[in-house]
Amino acid sequence: MKTKIIILLAFCLSCVQLSNLKAQQWMRTPYIDVNKKDLNFYDIQKAFNMWSADKDLSKIKGYKAYKRWEWFYGQRVFPTGEMPDPGINWKELKKIKNEYYSKKNLKTNSNWTSIAPISIPPSPDPTSIHGMGRINCITFHPTDTNVFWIGASQGGVWKTTDGGQTWVTLTDDIPLLRISDIAVAPDNPDIMYIATGDIDYIGFNTIEAGRIYQFGMGILKSTDAGATWDTTGLSFNLTDGQSSLIRKIIINPDSTDKIIAGGADGIYKSSDAGDTWTKKDSSVIIDMDANPLNTNTVFAATFFSPVMQDEAKVMKSTDFGDTWTDLNTGIPLTDTVQRIEIAIAPSDTNFIYALTCGNNGGLYAFYKSVDAGDTWQLVVDTNAGPTYAPNVLGWIDGGYFNLPGYPVDNAGQGTYDLTLLVSPNDPGKIYTGGVNMWGSEDTGKTWNFVSMWVNYFGPSLHADQHCSKINPLTGEYFQSNDGGLFKTDTIKIGNLDEVLPCVNFITQEITPGCYTLPTNWTDLTGGLHITEFYRMGGCRDGANVIIAGSQDNGTYLYNDGNWINAWGGDGMEAMIDHHNPNIIYATNYNGTLNRSTDGGQNFTSNLETPITDAGEHGDWVTPYAMNSYNSNIIYTAFNNIWKSEDQGTSWTKISNIASNYSFKALSVANSNPNYIYASRPKDIYRTTDGGTTWTSIKTGLPINDDLVTYITISSEDPLTLWITFSGYDEGEKVYKSINGGDSWNNISYNLPNVAANCIVHQAGHTSDNVYLNGLYVGTDIGVFYTNDSLLNSSAKWIEFDNGLPNVVVNELEIHYGAQKIRAATYGRGLWETDLYVSSYDVNIGMPKYDNNNVNLKVFPNPNNGNFMIKANIKKKENVLINMFTLTGDKVLTINDNVKGAYDKQIDVSEFTNGIYILQITIADTHYTTKIVKQ
């Protein structure tokens, strides 16, 4: 059997414009005014639309970061195009919580449990290299080889005390879970500093527009090993702009009260453990490394973009950041090089290297100094001539083969993923990270590949490298990327020349197993619940079946505790047939639709083609919906609303209301599928006759200022519906209509002033036949609940987030059979809890509780020294129970082998009162929750 060589040939053919793409070209003239100091969301959106108007984006790489940004911020932007204070989530959270996870909060109805694979799930696609989520940074304990920390792009700080076998989160109580760096005091590891924000998006410059989802709040500090966090003197608001993005925090090991921090606004120094800071330099810092043998010597690298200006350069300080000198490296200061990554050789600190990324995101050149930065030498570049080298930042072979008739792989994503590392024992051995990893054994003169993001050459690393580090205590290499965290004892460089005989260039096929990359990587990602989910779906007849689409890591399918990665790419909306869990739908960005009829083993892809062939385009997260009575009927919304009666094989347009805007929200009434509601920017529509006629129902809504993010319809009455609004307009979060949108009632009341992303209506009614109208709203800081009784009381909306991190909730779905509500979060995976009201009658054909479900229960919570774990386990499984303190120390481990009903009493009477993290492993799944001993 032979496999298509997508990475070297077919992939290239589909990317014929690859070599012509300039990274973020729309951020340059003539598309944008680079001299404008107050660029906002609409300036950037207009520039991208102008740049892309005559291009087939399916044949261009490197623009997805923009589309992610546009999708997220388009929902939250002010009408002026400006964004709110990045600390608004923090402020709103403090309004509604007196203290995080207080006993009072834990006594309310919800008790969220995290569901996550114990390891990266298998994929039916043998070429897939997928993962769990993006990790930006790694930090090691100063004396304990088993303890280290990681920072996730949207999932917070995690700690392991057993070398990566188990993990515990330390930051679920802070409202910003995006982390760019972690620093631990070498003389007291209980003292920690974290840089909030996601600086790796700095190359896609929306800084001046106030990209709050990228923004942080500066540096936070903990003095109790991460149990609690507080702000430091380096804190930021919107008026400080890009200042909140910190790349690196360095603690002076000889005097740990002295700290320097480098980021987008420059370099700051503190001499009092973070209480106060002084700005020492105003350059845009993208990397900073200290000499391991001389605590006062620090090097910094900067970032250039046409909008941010500044210069591309390397700087040096010999007084721990008080003063800085620009080094004469030979790197072009403006308009040529964007990002620089530096590395110091641990075995000979006179060797310093600089890896530079050009305007197209690919390698510009590689430089070195052998005299501690005094003089520099150009080692290689990607121009023809004696210093030519392959583009080590490319997607494929970096132009190594340079085959006639095929596009040259000369671009890349170097502004987003760029790492550089020197061997601890040999100053001439260097490893780079871009999309893939490459290595050199001769100070950068010659290069070859170390990893490949598609599994044609054996198991390898996920794409898009963000951090390369060596544990100084063990000498092990650690690599983090968009998929997770990996380690190896030794990095061995591969040989592309040995790949060439494996390729049949006539048939465009490669022989499987013909060549294997020599580096063996160990995956340490299991237990890190950091997946960035966009959407999820359930199966009405399967209480324990969930499908969800994630950023960078495809579509995950969870079935009775077992996981597979069913479909690749960026996973978006996903659905499962109501009655047959083998029929699943997975979508990619802009509405690409794929269907499987065998539980995700095989797919029919690109089912949306008739719609795109008609000239329509879908949103980044294109909505899809399924008919409540007939699972074969599905709907979608591109520029118009479309309907398929044969599982997506053919499509019929059922509206004629197209505009340049694609639809963002779509809902079909369960009680009468002739009632359909759909929303796009600045409008919302209704049909009551299956699509024959459509009516705008926007009157009375703040739709010109805010974006409708979600629509839910009463299961009993198709004329009763609720919608959510994103944005930051106080009191403009949830609206209700009882007449199909002819008029609206604002029921936002006491909901926090953060984005409301989704809403779900709880079907059914109470025993006295009074409609309950339970509503759950997912926001940027958790879930809130109300019903008719609460809305008529002083409480209005209540928190429904016990155990749930303060994370962006993108979608909520109810499974009536399991009596659960489930949440897809952007950065902390999938969660579930019991419904607020569990004893009611339903009347829409949904099954009762399915005894095949694991149905994990932990109670009472809080407890007085004893609690129970109950579960229903279909086949004999090992059950592993671990209990951790909030600082990540493991305090209890229990192993059982169980089949059937599991009733386990846990005695914690000897434990100190407080909050603990309980992790229960059954089959292939971790279930994680918080529990209080009082």
What does this structure look like?
The protein is mainly β. Among the domains are: 3-73, no CATH class; 857-933, Immunoglobulin-like, CATH 2.60.40. Helices cover 6% and strands 36% of the residues. It is built from 7 helices and 63 strands. Strands 2, 56, 57, 58, 59, 60, 61, 62 and 63 form a 9-stranded antiparallel sheet that branches. The chain has a 4-stranded antiparallel sheet with strand order 3-4-5-6, with no helix packed on it. A hairpin with a 7-residue loop joins strand 17 (314-317) and strand 18 (325-326). The longest helix has 12 residues, at 41-52. It starts with a strand and ends with a strand.
Topology of helices and strands:
Layout: E1 3-4, H1 6-13, H2 41-52, H3 64-73, H4 88-96, H5 103-106, E2 113-117, E3 135-140, E4 148-152, E5 156-160, E6 168-169, E7 179-184, E8 192-196, E9 218-222, E10 230-235, E11 246-251, E12 259-263, E13 266-270, E14 278-281, E15 285-290, E16 298-302, E17 314-317, E18 325-326, E19 337-344, E20 352-358, E21 363-369, E22 377-381, E23 419-422, E24 430-433, E25 437-440, E26 448-449, E27 465-470, E28 477-481, E29 485-488, E30 503-504, E31 509-510, E32 522-523, E33 533-539, E34 542-550, E35 554-559, E36 562-567, E37 571-576, E38 584-588, E39 593-596, H6 609-613, E40 624-626, E41 634-637, E42 641-644, E43 652-653, E44 665-668, E45 676-680, E46 683-687, E47 695-696, E48 708-713, E49 721-725, E50 734-737, E51 745-746, E52 756-762, E53 774-779, E54 782-786, H7 788-791, E55 798-799, E56 809-815, E57 820-825, E58 830-834, E59 857-859, E60 866-885, E61 890-907, E62 914-922, E63 925-933
Antiparallel strand pairs: 1-31, 2-58, 2-63, 3-4, 4-5, 5-6, 7-8, 8-9, 9-10, 11-12, 12-13, 13-14, 15-16, 16-17, 17-18, 19-20, 20-21, 21-22, 23-24, 24-25, 25-26, 27-28, 28-29, 29-32, 30-31, 33-34, 34-35, 35-36, 37-38, 38-39, 40-41, 41-42, 42-43, 44-45, 45-46, 46-47, 48-49, 49-50, 50-51, 52-53, ...
